[in-house]
Amino acid sequence: MYAERMSRLTGAVVWTNTPDGAGGGPVLPDGCMDLLWSEGRLLVAGPDTRPYVPGGPPRSWAGVRFFPGTAPALLGVPAHELRDLRVDLEDLWPADRVRRLADRVGSASDPATALEDIALEQAARTMAPDPLLHRLVERLDEGRPVSATAAELGIGTRTLHRRCLGAFGYGPKTLARILRLRRALALARAGTPYAETAVRAGYADQSHLSREVRELTGMPLGELLGAG
């Protein structure tokens, strides 16, 4: 069973996922990175460009999903180095520190809140996220074209692409596609007809929506909604 709540860390979400016998669907690209806890291990989920299906038997997870573009500054690693990967936190931070943090989360009555505390402490030790990146996400999530967004933010397209690689793991056009997918899935899951979903999310038509969903998730929209 999946559950989530807003985090005390601005823009982040705290979530848990425990096996319920129904089988879980794939983890879809969403523009975010996560700090994860499962079976005694602290991990980081990098930015996805394709669906991720966890291997092995079902297990319990807890996580903090960071607002798009904010995790690299907290974790100290460019997002593109973790694209489509799940890595142990020990690969990014000193091993002795990670072991202490793992002991702390493992002994907590609520591992998800313990993870959130770690994220908050790390945020207090690092520079605040670049406000330009937050504005970029907002503009693209409104359906603004990349070129118009770059001009509005006062930066060149090459500079924007370079900064997006470090913050999101891919360029602004891919980020815009993923944010549009996220909007479309939210509408479709709320019962909005597919044709209306396509228009409201920013696709040319329903066929365009269908192609993009299949390209980014590997599944037709109807099957994807059933799996979710």
From TrEMBL:
Gene3D superfamilies: Homeodomain-like (1.10.10.60). InterPro entries: AraC_XylS_family_regulators, DUF6597, HTH_AraC. Keywords: DNA-binding, Transcription, Transcription regulation. PROSITE patterns: HTH_ARAC_FAMILY_2. It holds the Pfam family DUF6597. Residues 130-227 form the HTH araC/xylS-type domain. GO terms for molecular function: DNA-binding transcription factor activity; sequence-specific DNA binding. This is AraC family transcriptional regulator. It comes from Streptomyces alanosinicus.
